[in-house]
Model the fold of this input.
Amino acid sequence: GDLESGLDYAAIENTYNVNTLGLLRLVEAMLPLLERSTLKRIAIVSSEAGCITLAHRDSGFGYGMSKAALNMVARLLFNDLRPQGYTFRLYHPGWMNGYMSGSKGTHGDMEPEEAAVPALAYFTGDREDEDRLALVDYMGSEWPF
Done:
């Protein structure tokens, strides 16, 4: 839906529940295991859609709002857990031919298996400055969030 025909608030709430609260629930549930790990890393998949300063879309309220809120969750987790030795990877994978709308998209820039290669490298690799949270895309470029 759109503003003229009416927004689907149940769908917006569901998107927020999955994209934003889902991360928070997962981190909370995994924290006891992460505490015992030698690599306390939290890897988060975000999107350019959550970048408020670069917002160019005029629809997709649920998705954009959920990703902006996800970026705030990442910041709050970083502020809380970085002093305890946690490291973070906030990642924008690019436009993939995924199943976000229920059927596989065909207009993306890459297939999921292609997108996984730079994602895995970023999630498992080292960074020079672990004390700075950064949103990085699949080409290694930083985005404001």
Summary: The first helix runs from residue 9 to 35. The beta strands are 41-45, 87-92, 135-137, 142-143. The helical segments are 9-35, 61-81, 112-124.
